[in-house]
């Protein structure tokens, strides 16, 4: 469980993170942390994980409180509970993959049989066996990302924070990593920061959107995509668009011709859809389809973060 209260990070006169409060747990599902470049996402993640000292605010991770006024005693205990994959992962190019995984495990306090078992699990899950004895400096970007992810998950953390985890991967690797993220999110607190909004659609249940250091939306992905726009497919010799407007129950009617005289109409409802459909059924035209139109994550993102 992760709880953030009144988190603020200020650099001189610039406030990168402005009084953020939210909580995320396994029951939240995989949570996306979204925002345009410079919105404060990375600063927020660094403050949560202890890489950055916040100006003010409190952070609780698995019942351990990290207070900005006295963080030292709790930092180590919190870091043992967190797996953090930054967007740019520092890797030691001279090390072999095997050496780096061993080093990462020992840095987390894992030794002996426990380290061997954890390493074997990560190598299998992330398909690193073919490059296990390759120097990190010779790896492709995709393989470097997979090694970094292995180090992030090696100690089986309760809270996982991933910043652009599929960056640089090919389509097959992306599907594999997304499947792993879904599996991890079933019983862990997992925050995913990404610019690939299709990724949010595919694997996230909740989205926190930040702009200019403040939260502008914090809802389930399904709720964010809801809208009052509906699509109706109908056919009649008269002007259905005019008839729809005449009901005064809709606005912004758009039409598109289909085959065999059918037309697709998209409109915004001013009333409940049941009331609208009941009124439309009294009109002298044939209705083939009436369905809600959900907004895309791209539309939602632009709406909430574009500058006025």
TrEMBL record:
Listed Pfam families: ABC_tran (PF00005)
Keywords: ATP-binding, Nucleotide-binding, Transport
All residue ranges annotated as the ABC transporter domain in the record: 2-237
A Gene Ontology molecular function term of the record: ATP binding
Transmembrane feature ranges: none
SMART domains: AAA
Superkingdom of this protein's organism: Bacteria
Entry-linked InterPro entries: AAA+_ATPase, ABC_transporter-like_ATP-bd, P-loop_NTPase
Family: Belongs to the ABC transporter superfamily.
PANTHER family: ABC TRANSPORTER, ATP-BINDING PROTEIN
Name of the protein described by the UniProt record: ATP-binding cassette domain-containing protein
